[in-house]
Every structure is written in C-alpha cells, then in structure tokens.
Amino acid sequence: MTGASRRIAVFGAGYIGLVTGACFAELGHRVVVRDIQPERIRLLNSGEVPFFEPGLGDLITRNKERLAFTLDVEEAVRDAEAVFVCVDTPPTASGDADLSRVWAVVDALRGASHLVAVVVKSTVPVGTGARVRAALDERDLGHVGYASNPEFTAEGRAVEDFLRPDRVVIGASDDAVARWVADLYGRLDSPVELMDVASAEMVKLASNALLATRITFINEIATVCEATGADIGHVSRAVGLDHRLGPHFLRAGLGYGGSCFPKDSRALRAMASNSGYPFQLLNAVIEVNELQPRRAIQRLKTELDGLKGRRIALLGMTFKPGTDDMREAPSTIIASRLLAEGATVTCWDPMAPHTDGRQEPWSSATRRPDPLGAMTDADAAILVTEWPELTDVDWTAAARLMRNPLLLDGRNLLDPAALLSAGFTHMGVGRGTRRPR
Ligand SMILES: NC(=O)c1ccc[n+]([C@@H]2O[C@H](COP(=O)([O-])OP(=O)(O)OC[C@H]3O[C@@H](n4cnc5c(N)ncnc54)[C@H](O)[C@@H]3O)[C@@H](O)[C@H]2O)c1
Ligand SMILES: O=c1ccn([C@@H]2O[C@H](COP(=O)(O)OP(=O)(O)O[C@H]3O[C@H](CO)[C@@H](O)[C@H](O)[C@H]3O)[C@@H](O)[C@H]2O)c(=O)[nH]1
C-alpha cells in the first residue's frame, strides 16, 4: 500500500464524522467535513469541538491546514476523490434503522461524477449498500465505486481506536475500489479485511450484538450470584482469565447504553424479523438489558421499604465515563422510574450537558456540582456511571451527610469493605447486601 495523500469529503460532523475527518487528516489526507447544522459548523470553524471526545480537539488543531468544515455540499464534494457517509442512522418506531439521512447524502451527490468512491461508515442494515449502489447507477454515477467501511471506535477512546484499530473492514464488489479505500489507511499498522459489501455490513452488526450479549450474559450471572451468595467480582475475573474467553466486556452493571448497542441490537433483530427469522437469542439480550436498571430500582425499593418520599442521589448520568453522551444512558431509565415511584432525585455528573429544562427526566431532578452535594440528606445513592472521580470521594463524610448511608454500586466500582467501614450499607450488582456492624 502506498498511503498516498488523498482528498476526502466527510458527510456528518458527529462523533464518527469528526473523528474520521480528523484522523484522516492526521494520516496525511485533505479533508472537508460537511454537516447540516449551522451551529456545529460555526463552532468548528471557530476552533471549538461541539462535544467531548478525548484528544479530538488537539488533533483538529494540529491538522487544521488539512481540515475544513462547511455547510455547503458543493464546497465539500468539488475537489473530493471520495465521500465518506458518517451521518446518524437512528431507530424508527419499528426498530429498523432510519436511513433517511443516508439517502439525503446520496441525493446530494447528483452530478458528482468525478468521485472514485462513495464509502458508507454509518451503521446500516445488510443490503443498504446494494440499494445505494443501485441509486448511484440510476443517478448516472455507475462508474463511481461503492464501499462499506464500518466503524468500530468506542466513545471516549475513539481517536486512539481509529488510529490503532484491531482491524479495518472494507466491503466492495470491485477490487480496485477496495484497495483504493484500504490505501487511505495505509499508514496504519493494522490488519485490513476485504470482503463483499453485505458481509462488511454484517460484521458491524454482529460485533455489537456479540459484545452486547457478553454484557447481558454476565449481568444474568450477576443476578444468579445475588440469589446464591457468589460474588460477581471473583466470577467475572476468573472466567475472563480463560484465554478462550478473555477479560473484556464482562463487567456486570446496570445494563448497556449508549448510541450504538441498544440501537444496533434492535436494528439487527428487526432486520432478522423482516426476513422472517425470529432472532431469539438477541431478543432475550434486549429484554434482559431493558430489565437490568429496573431490577436495581426494585432492590432499592425492597431495601428502603418503598421509594415514595425518599431522596435518592444518582452519581453519574452519561452512558459511560469519558464522554458527555447521554444517548440511551441507563441513568435516564433509573431517574424516570424513581420519579414515577414518588422519590426525589438529586444527581451529579462531571460532563453531562446541562439541559434547558425540556429534557425528561432530568428536568425534575436537582443537579449538584459535586457528589457530596448530591448525597446530602439522601436516603440512598446509586452509582450509575463509573467516573474515576468517585473513587476519590470522602465516603466517611458522605455517610455523615446522608440521611441513610446506603450505596447501590451499579458498576461495582468501589471497594465494599471500605464502604462498610465508612458506615455504609453496600449493595453491588452480583453481590449481596452488606451492612456495617
Ligand atoms: N458514536 C459512535 O461511537 C459510533 C461508533 C461506530 C459507528 N457509529 C455509527 O456512525 C453513524 C454516526 O453516528 P454518530 O454517533 O457520529 O452520530 P451523530 O448524531 O453524533 O452525528 C451525525 C451527524 O450527521 C449530521 N448529518 C445529518 N444529515 C446530514 C447530511 N445530509 N449531510 C451532512 N451531515 C448530516 C448530523 O447533523 C450530525 O451532526 C451512525 O450510523 C452510528 O451508528 C457510531
Ligand atoms: O463490560 C462491560 C462493557 C461495557 N458495558 C456498557 O456497555 C455500553 C457500551 O460501552 P462501550 O462499548 O464502551 O461504548 P460505545 O462507545 O457505545 O462503543 C460500542 O459501540 C460502538 C458503536 O457501534 C462500537 O463502535 C464500539 O466498538 C462498541 O464498543 C456502556 O453503557 C457500558 O457501560 C458494560 O456494562 N459492561
């Protein structure tokens, strides 16, 4: 591979589009990123990143000579050799992926006959590439290549994941197009898997579904641990030491959230159902995950003998640490359920965006600037997101500030023995309830 410098247009300046644009610029390509949100492009042109992603701001600044941002399709595509489609593909009411934004990009490419390739990075159902290919042909872009190049980066470590991927997956029916796209990554020392378009689309959905299944499996084991007296900490660590299983994605918790696992597992289930196949295992994964935060609330309800009138502190709101992303965060289900039970909710998070009062359920919760503030006068605290800041909390002081020092550690972040000696009753996921002497 030559790793030659190319000219690329990226459609979508969200988590994936911006990381893709900035990382391609870092690899020596010239990139124009186009979005439809004027405020987003204004921020980027004034040197600001519209969301938090570690290292992304520095990368954009370092590569500003090779990186431009625009609202204008013509400006983005004029000199480009390839268009990368990185727009959002949210779920519809039926759970299928909404591809309207992908189609909007395809429509915008009318007349762009100079392109070498249109490359879809957005997560899409299997068969989308074939439909886009047909649409390009209908628009007299039959000679423009098509490739699927799914993205596997995780939020909070997306830049690192992009520049050091486990693998780059490229699906194309034309070998020359596949090699051309692979060459964009030529400066990376990573395996490149070339395949047909449908298989590349499936790799993405299968990877996320398998990761979600592992999390759900360990959450189910955690529930059995709670019922039988085993400790999930010992169990998942020792299970993960089996080299055939490995240690990753075996952390029991309050269920998986985020912009991908919930959406993509439902999209894969819908895709299977649409073809007449009920994907029963995935169905169970989705159901168990939806129950997981509700189970935690039920445990708390039993422990407190009801939640009505109780004050509950939520520690962490984002779907995981290291991001400001609230999409499908388990905290939103937990807060809604607590409010529905008649509890008062206080919360803390170092990074979750401040809402304008319209966004349920946080509009009814009181946000505090630090964990101790959120726990003051609370009847219980739930550790929802494993922010490292929570390991530095003075838990003895927290126990004194709370009306009832009870912690449900929903991510098994803290040492139960330390909590007990601070005066807390401790509940963990996959661990029984332990009370101070
Ligand atoms: N977020 C992740 O970690 C991640 C990881 C892998 C794959 N993906 C997939 O990548 C895709 C994008 O996800 P995201 O999290 O970046 O979404 P996002 O919502 O953060 O960003 C999407 C961006 O596309 C823009 N957009 C919509 N229509 C457009 C158009 N016609 N032209 C230009 N821009 C347009 C939106 O304004 C928005 O800024 C999705 O399919 C997602 O499933 C996401
Ligand atoms: O052992 C674990 C690991 C993760 N989670 C939860 O799973 C969710 C997703 O976490 P993570 O995978 O770290 O974050 P994402 O940024 O959503 O990344 C996933 O989704 C992306 C979008 O498709 C993929 O590209 C990534 O490969 C895939 O890891 C979060 O709620 C985590 O708390 C657990 O409960 N236990």
TrEMBL record:
- Record: active site: 260 (nucleophile)
Q: Which GO terms describe its biological process?
A: polysaccharide biosynthetic process; UDP-glucuronate biosynthetic process
Q: Does the keyword Cell cycle apply?
A: no
Q: Which GO terms describe its molecular function?
A: NAD binding; UDP-glucose 6-dehydrogenase activity
Q: Name the residues that bind NAD(+).
A: 35, 40, 89, 123, 155, 263, 327
Q: Which UniProt key words apply to this protein?
A: NAD, Oxidoreductase
Report the InterPro entries cross-referenced here. Answer: 6-PGluconate_DH-like_C_sf, NAD(P)-bd_dom_sf, UDP-Glc/GDP-Man, UDP-Glc/GDP-Man_DH_C, UDP-Glc/GDP-Man_DH_C_sf, UDP-Glc/GDP-Man_DH_dimer, UDP-Glc/GDP-Man_DH_N, UDPglc_DH_bac
Q: Where is this region: Disordered?
A: 352-372
* Residues of the UDP-glucose/GDP-mannose dehydrogenase C-terminal domain: 313-416
Q: Which domain of life is it from?
A: Bacteria
Its EC number(s): 1.1.1.22
Its recorded reaction(s) are: UDP-alpha-D-glucose + 2 NAD(+) + H2O = UDP-alpha-D-glucuronate + 2 NADH + 3 H(+)
Record bears the keyword Zinc: no
Q: What pathway does the UniProt record associate with this protein?
A: Nucleotide-sugar biosynthesis; UDP-alpha-D-glucuronate biosynthesis; UDP-alpha-D-glucuronate from UDP-alpha-D-glucose: step 1/1
Residues reported in the UniProt entry to bind substrate = 152-155, 204, 249-253, 257, 320
Please name the NCBIfam families in this protein's record.
NDP-sugDHase
Similarity field: Belongs to the UDP-glucose/GDP-mannose dehydrogenase family.
Q: What is this protein called?
A: UDP-glucose 6-dehydrogenase
